[in-house]
Description:
Layout: H1 16-35, E1 39-40, E2 46-48, H2 49-52, H3 57-62, E3 66-68, H4 79-83, H5 87-94, E4 95-99, H6 104-113, E5 122-131, E6 143-152, H7 158-173, E7 178-184, H8 185-194, H9 201-208, H10 211-225, H11 230-240, H12 246-256, H13 261-280, E8 285-288, E9 302-308, E10 317-322, E11 336-342, H14 343-352, E12 366-368, H15 373-388, E13 393-395, H16 402-411, E14 416-419, H17 422-427, E15 429-434, E16 440-444, H18 448-453
Parallel strand pairs: 1-5, 7-8, 12-13, 12-14
Antiparallel strand pairs: 2-4, 3-4, 5-6, 6-11, 7-9, 9-10, 10-11, 14-15, 15-16
Helix pairs in contact: 1-7, 1-14, 7-13, 8-13, 9-10, 10-11, 12-13
Amino acid sequence: xxxxxxxxxxxxxxxxxxxxxxxxxxxxxxxxxxxxxxxxxxxxxxxxxxxxxxxxxxxxxxxxxxxxxxxxxxxxxxxxxxxxxxxxxxxxxxxxxxxxxxxxxxxxxxxxxxxxxxxxxxxxxxxxxxxxxxxxxxxxxxxxxxxxxxxxxxxxxxxxxxxxxxxxxxxxxxxxxxxxxxxxxxxxxxxxxxxxxxxxxxxxxxxxxxxxxxxxxxxxxxxxxxxxxxxxxxxxxxxxxxxxxxxxxxxxxxxxxxxxxxxxxxxxxxxxxxxxxxxxxxxxxxxxxxxxxxxxxxxxxxxxxxxxxxxxxxxxxxxxxxxxxxxxxxxxxxxxxxxxxxxxxxxxxxxxxxxxxxxxxxxxxxxxxxxxxxxxxxxxxxxxxxxxxxxxxxxxxxxxxxxxxxxxxxxxxxxxxxxxxxxxxxxxxxxxxxxxxxxxxxxxxxxxxxxxxx
Length: 454
């Protein structure tokens, strides 16, 4: 007996109906990207591991899918390599490449490689799949699509303001009610400095980023394991639990970290962004969340994360400012900021809340029934004219029973069926049936399109 085929955990097949819904998401997002002047870009699925490693922190490096070298991949290894308990070290000997973890690091690599061809500031959008060796669960996949926009070569906070505007427009167009949470990495640095642990900034940010998932007590336990004492935790606690309006939070955090120059700079950046957003009237729930850290090491300024209000799932969009990312590839002093939209989670939200337009999963708008002979030829002529007008349409390929052809139209949710039988052909007319209302119209051949458009 043949073995039943399967696919790897954390990956999915997408049916034509699902793909049309996904395409609706991609097209909607891309339309907003283009509106703001972003240009398209694609990078390879694989990158050299040297490009990827060390850019996502220790936890991120563990989630990289490594690609086994072709040919004799054990060449150059010794017996001692196989007895070494470090599988990660062995993997680096076997693997020179890896599947991309996100789109930002490959983008930074592209900028460095093509800096002589680029006009700065450089604005690009990128819609491609990424891979992470994570544990599959609801809303978390090993292969998923990201829709990114980034601007490099500009320090202006107007870029952050623009990202907030794009977020507002994208989710308004998709009809998803969201909250955009915002913080600043400089504020986090100021917090670490204030509690006396500037040297443990990464440990602090990685831990507090889990606050919503594991709670304050578990965060404190993790920080204690990193060598952060109770006195520091007592200072940290009221910061993480700050409540009130954005303005009230800024006043309180300023009073706590006023002795940190970098922390105050972060507060000023947040205030500037909020003032701009208020001035242009962005219709979006924007919340300052001082526990938001987004554990990626390359963020240096503003941090963004978007969550759906009406559907329980992780963040559906996120990003921030990264001043030093291209520096690791040899291009210094090129600041960047960007945000990524998680298409797969957005799909889950829209599917769960039934937010897709009724026609989002319709590929064919008109089906011509097939009676064979002269009727078939007449249908083909009319079909050609309708397709030329840009209307997705088709003819049933076989001259089978009418019931089977109509069942096909119903299963495909095709809204219009055109009937040109023997009697219709002799009269020079066609019957156009609206499959949703059941209404039928007899129209002259050549006028079918006008009925469908109405």
